[in-house]
Amino acid sequence: MLTTVNITDDIYYIGVNDRETYLFENLWPLDRGVSYNAYLIDDEQTAVFDTVKNTKTHVFIDKIAGILKDRPLDYLVINHMEPDHSGAIKALQDKYPDLKLVGNTKTFELLEDFYGPLKNYHVIKDGDQLSLGTHTLSFYLTPMVHWPETMMSYESTTGTLFSMDAFGGFGTLDGGIFDDEVNLEFYMDETRRYYSNIVGKYGAMVQKALKKLKDANIPMNIIAPTHGPVWRTDPHCIIDHYDRWSRAETEEGVVIVYGSMYGNTQKMADVIARRLSENGIKNIRIYDASKTHVSYLISDLWRFKGVILGSCAYNTGLFPTMETLVNKLENSQLKDRLLGIFGTASWSGGGVSNLNKFAEKIKWQRVGESVEAKSSPKEKDFQQCIAIADEMAERLIKERA
Ligand SMILES: Cc1cc2nc3c(=O)[nH]c(=O)nc-3n(C[C@H](O)[C@H](O)[C@H](O)COP(=O)(O)O)c2cc1C
Ligand SMILES: [Fe+2]
Ligand SMILES: [Fe+2]
Question: Which atom of ligand 1 is nearest to the CA of 265?
């Protein structure tokens, strides 16, 4: 018996867990895996919402067949074409030859580019409806959350939003499927890591999508995303988080990230952190950019207002792991942070000077003067580090309501 879970009497969870893949999109570490969620509505007409990664095709189709037995599958709603959700479309239509594929014009362009022409296209426009019998679906186009074809589907008798990747996160569903069945702290962190690294760049489009849902004035009882838990107890909690993340709203706290080979730059990070603490800042996180994957750094940078970056010089440039971080930040469109800079160099430098160039490009508010120690930090360098910490703490404390 394969695991299928009733979301309501006739809406089923038919997703699968992936514990094998090391890196999502071959980039993001999956320490605790990922789920590819899919759903089935069993009505006069039957419908599935999204498929799974191609490696999971067989178990996915077996789950559908286990529910439908000899009955046909009438519709596949394709909310998103990224291959972690579109990988089983062709196989599903091979199994159910009359299957109608529901998507918008952009969906079918991508579908044909990826998988060649399939058949039975049912093209919908923003706001269109589709009745399955007792259940009625409405479609909301939400372009560029985070692909051009992304859309959401809403079922009105139960108030269920099939939201594709929006509101979803990393982490397999290990038994618990719903928000009230799992440890939410873990999934919230993993949902923010997913958001900040994959969707965050498109915050303006997320805001548009949230407005569209709000203006539609639809009761939101259940949010069923394509990764992570199903939000049924407090769906507005995850909507609020998305709203805050997409407006780059922050909590009080400072993330210090450094690149250091022999520990000299690291010493400066510890002095800065201690002084922040003496000034009453409680959320302080120090990360070694060579040890912690950039996706976790971005996730914390999305959360906290204060950012202090340090780098030793390395072959006339930034230390490579810090270079990865600043490149990702430049691309991420993350706005409105407070930035302090420190580092070390033994001859002509390259670390601090490049962090300063980054600061000009990203246009965050600068905090204190950047400090560059010669080889190892001396008392005067530590005093400059302390000055950065003092100004950072002062600016953060001033923002307290
Ligand atoms: C492979 C390598 C390349 C370096 N490149 C530079 C450089 O281009 N310019 C510079 O001023 N110092 C350079 N340095 C010196 C270090 O930046 C300097 O010793 C620094 O204090 C090391 O800090 P850490 O102890 O935090 O690793 C280099 C050191 C190494 C090992
Ligand atoms: Fe996606
Ligand atoms: Fe996805």
Answer: 26
Q: Mean pLDDT for the chain?
A: 98
| Cα 166 to ligand 2 centre (Å) | 9
Residue 1 in contact with ligand 1 by CB distance below 6 A: no
- Let me know if residue 150 belongs to a domain: yes
- Res 401: pLDDT: 77
Residue 346 Cβ contacting ligand 1 at under 6 Å: yes
Give residue 1's pLDDT. 84
Domain boundary among the residues 214, 246, 278 is at: 246
Q: Could you read off the pLDDT of 61-101 as tens digits, one per residue?
A: 999 999 999 999 999 999 999 999 999 999 999 999 999 99
- Write out the residue range of the structural domain in which residue 390 sits: 254-396
236 and 296 share a domain? no
Task: Identify whether residues 210 and 262 lie together within a single domain.
Answer: no
Assigned token pair, 353: 């000077």
The residues facing 101 across adjacent strands are 76, 121
Residue 285, domain CATH:
3.40.50.360
* Nearest ligand by distance to the CA of 169: 3
Note the pLDDT tens digit of each residue in 145-166.
Answer: 999 999 999 999 999 999 999 9
Spatial CA neighbour of 118 closest among 130, 129, 103: 103
Report the pLDDT value the prediction gives residue 333, as an integer from 0 to 100: 87
Ion ligand 3 contact residues with beta carbon within 5 A:
84, 165
Q: How many domains does the chain have?
A: 2
Q: Which residues surround ligand 2, an ion (CB under 5 A)?
A: 82, 165
Instruction: Say what the pLDDT of residue 327 is.
Output: 98
